[in-house]
């Protein structure tokens, strides 16, 4: 909401109207201030509203607004693992790997048997290059949710392929390093 303030020149006749206008603007600002929920039902509704907004913003691609909506929900409910998990997913889409890892860890801390949180943590760890940890978390996801086809058919095979490629690269680097040491000794 935009507030307009008229600048009046001082004269005896309009000082009263200046105070009235100032009071009116102050009341407008106060009336648009976010209100704290009055009871548990209001708080639950407000949390749900922020979660829903966060999801809608993410679906529209307004990722920064999505994160802000989830943060507002977290201010009201620090024990809802779903909020942290969804916020982690949005951080991943923003390529903000460390915040994604932190939020996924918090989600797991709150719901240690929730497979989706492990899956999101695994994806964040992939983004960071922690392939072995990512694979372990995808496996924990599948252990918690055996019917999670996305983890079983996509995440785990992809991660295993990356781990395999990493091992091959490590062997090549080691071999090349040993070869160059031998060449230096022979020289």
Automatic annotation (TrEMBL):
TPR repeats lie at residues 115-148. Keywords: TPR repeat. It holds the Pfam family TPR_8. InterPro entries: TPR-containing, TPR-like_helical_dom_sf, TPR_rpt. This is Tetratricopeptide repeat protein 33-like isoform X1.
């Amino acid at each position: 909401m935009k507030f307009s303030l008229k600048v009046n020149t001082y004269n005896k006749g309009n000082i009263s109207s200046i105070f009235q206008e100032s009071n009116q603007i102050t009341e407008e600002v106060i009336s648009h201030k976010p209100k704290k929920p009055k009871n548990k039902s209001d708080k639950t509704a407000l949390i749900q509203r922020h979660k829903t907004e966060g999801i809608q913003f993410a679906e529209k691609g307004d990722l920064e607004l999505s994160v802000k909506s989830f943060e507002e929900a977290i201010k009201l409910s620090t024990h809802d693992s779903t909020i942290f998990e969804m916020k982690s997913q949005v951080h991943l889409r923003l390529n903000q790997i460390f915040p994604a890892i932190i939020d996924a860890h918090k989600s797991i801390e709150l719901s240690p048997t929730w497979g989706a949180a492990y899956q999101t943590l695994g994806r964040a760890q992939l983004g960071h290059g922690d392939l072995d940890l990512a694979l372990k978390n995808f496996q924990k996801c599948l252990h918690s949710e055996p019917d999670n086809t996305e983890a079983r058919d996509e995440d785990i095979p992809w991660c295993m392929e990356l781990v395999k490629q990493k091992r091959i690269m490590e062997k090549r680097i080691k071999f090349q390093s040993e070869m160059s040491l031998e060449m230096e000794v022979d020289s």
